Inverse folding.
């Protein structure tokens, strides 16, 4: 009997949620699937401090903190107003050296190599390290190696393909970890508006959670 009462009480909120579009998955509708380029564009949008998502630099700060914990010498945590995020860039001017995501800040230089199903190109990680080192012009730099694999496996791949010096600059990270960082950013963003009524948060919640769930499946 109690279950019947509970289910009846639940019916109205569920109907409202459906009508409000809360069960919508915009990333499935956009057919992102496991396509590396479209997923790179969306990830870069979330990481962009100037993006229209409303997060500001929250997500990027959380990612930088994660990088700092992985590098022996640490990594800058301050993001400049002049920070720029680019997708499919050619930092060295060579069209053969396409970088999936480039984050160029006066205080640091970061490359994110995105992998879902495609294989790594010949000497790709080594070339990206050379590009990042040259482009950094003395700034701290790193290369994030984003793959579906467990980071332990990715570290073994990294260590077999690049020299000892650059090993300390290449950080393996899984899509599941990236999804977790995005959810952390969402919670941090939502906490700012605690105890206040901001209906517009429903949209950013929907977009962030659905994308985090999407990449968590890689």
């Amino acid at each position: 009997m109690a279950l019947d009462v509970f289910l009846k009480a639940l019916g109205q909120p569920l109907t409202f949620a459906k009508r409000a579009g809360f069960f919508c998955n915009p990333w499935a509708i956009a057919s992102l699937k496991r396509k590396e380029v479209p997923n790179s564009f969306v990830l870069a949008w979330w990481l962009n401090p100037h993006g229209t998502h409303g997060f500001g630099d929250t997500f990027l700060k959380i990612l930088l903190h994660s990088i700092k914990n992985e590098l022996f010498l640490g990594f800058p945590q301050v993001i400049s107003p002049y920070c720029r995020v680019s997708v499919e860039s050619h930092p060295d001017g060579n069209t053969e050296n396409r970088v999936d995501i480039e984050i160029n800040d006066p205080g640091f230089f970061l490359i994110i190599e995105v992998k879902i199903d495609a294989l790594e190109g010949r000497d790709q990680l080594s070339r990206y390290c050379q590009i990042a080192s040259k482009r950094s012009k003395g700034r701290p730099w790193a290369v994030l190696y984003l793959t579906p694999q467990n980071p332990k496996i990715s570290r073994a791949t990294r260590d077999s393909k690049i020299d000892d010096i650059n090993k300390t600059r290449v950080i393996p990270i899984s899509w599941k970890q990236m999804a977790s960082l995005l959810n952390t950013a969402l919670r941090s963003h939502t906490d700012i508006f605690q105890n206040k009524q901001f209906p517009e948060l429903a949209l950013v919640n929907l977009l962030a959670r659905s994308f985090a769930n999407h990449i968590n499946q890689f």
About this structure: The mean pLDDT is 85. The domain at 35-215 is CATH 3.40.1350 (Trna Endonuclease; Chain: A, domain 1).
